[in-house]
């Protein structure tokens, strides 16, 4: 599926929702180019999980810069890109949650939001945002399955708070087309028919552009 009008598909969702897996599956199916979150090369991630108040601002600025760079590349290029996690999640979910939990100072949070607003004024929203909606038990199960060491210390209340921010953000999202996939009911990882449902829903959302 190639079309000059569709350049940017984005996959959003909480930790453990299946963003990376779905990104890979859809990239393969549609022959899109995947862009992944730069987790392994993030110099702050392990430190952040050890001492969140100290490293929260640094971590969020790293992610913001990384995703801004990705979006600039998408806008300048000709390929259709599917992006694992969006720049909006940094600003609407993770940063405000850290601030609300007392893990990011108000001074740093205000500075961060100001930077995001400047960046957001210079970028286009994705042609389609795919939101992976998942309950806490589903998230915990999938996090345990992948066994990332730095996620061992994730607490249930942290995931719950993130989920609340996600639901609030998605309920007011009006930047562009939106597709919500209920991961509790759609096991696109193991069920081919479930993946086909997602594919067909994407086609339905984008059919006017193809």
Q: Spans of 5+ residues with little confidence (pLDDT < 50)?
A: none
Major beta sheet, strand line-up: 2-3-1-4-5
Order of helices and strands: EHEHHEHHEHHEH
Oligomer: single chain
Q: Sheet with the most strands? A: 5 strands, parallel
The percentage helix is 40-55%
CATH class category label: Alpha Beta
- Give the CATH architecture: 3-Layer(aba) Sandwich
| Strand fraction | 5-15%
Q: What is the strand tally?
A: 5
The domain count comes to 1
Round the mean pLDDT to the nearest integer and report it.
89
* CA gyration radius, whole angstroms: 17 Å
Number of helices: 8
What is the CA-CA span between the terminal residues? 9 Å
- Assign the CATH superfamily: P-loop containing nucleotide triphosphate hydrolases
CATH topology: Rossmann fold
Shape: globular
Q: What would you call the structural class?
A: alpha/beta
In terms of topology, how is this protein built?
Blueprint: E1 8-13, H1 19-30, E2 33-35, H2 45-50, H3 52-76, E3 81-84, H4 87-100, H5 106-120, E4 128-133, H6 136-146, H7 156-171, E5 177-182, H8 192-206
Parallel strand pairs: 1-3, 1-4, 2-3, 4-5
Helix pairs in contact: 3-4, 3-5, 4-5, 4-7
Provide a descriptive summary of the structure in words.
- The protein has a single domain (8-155, 182-209), classed as Rossmann fold (3-Layer(aba) Sandwich).
- The chain has a 5-stranded parallel beta sheet, sandwiched between helices.
- The protein is built from 8 helices and 5 strands.
- 31% of the residues are buried.
- The mean pLDDT is 89.
- Helix content is 54%, strand content 12%.
- By secondary structure, the protein is of the alpha/beta class.
